């Protein structure tokens, strides 16, 4: 090979090296706004586990009330509160399925 052919062979490599060495670094660009926060799931992540815990709470309340001869106002209020929770859980399960 002649010296001219060697020069033509290595010329692209030399040009690339010169461009890399002499090139100015780019300015880093920064976003003006921050990224939005990740999406959150509203309500219970596992509705079956929430329903199970609610049923355990209801069972505990009925066992405590079962020993009484008559229901007092506190027991009635507790049962109504648990009934409202059960209705809300049932409504949320209807939306899931």
Description:
With 97 residues, the chain is mostly helical. It has a domain at 43-97. The protein has helices at residues 3-22, 47-66, 73-96. α2 (47-66) runs antiparallel to α3. The chain is rod-shaped, with a radius of gyration of 37 Å. The protein starts with a helix and ends with a helix.
Blueprint (SSEs and pairs):
Elements: H1 3-22, H2 47-66, H3 73-96
Helix pairs in contact: 2-3
* Apparent shape: rod-shaped
In the predicted model, the low-confidence regions spanning at least 5 consecutive residues are: none
The main pleated sheet reads as: none
Number of strands: 0
Name the helicity range.
55-70%
Number of helices: 3
What gap, in angstroms, lies between the N and C termini?
78 Å
What is the beta-strand fraction? under 5%
Short note summarizing the structure:
The chain has a domain of about 55 residues. Helix content is about 65%, strand content about 0%.
Structure keywords:
single chain, 97 residues, mainly alpha
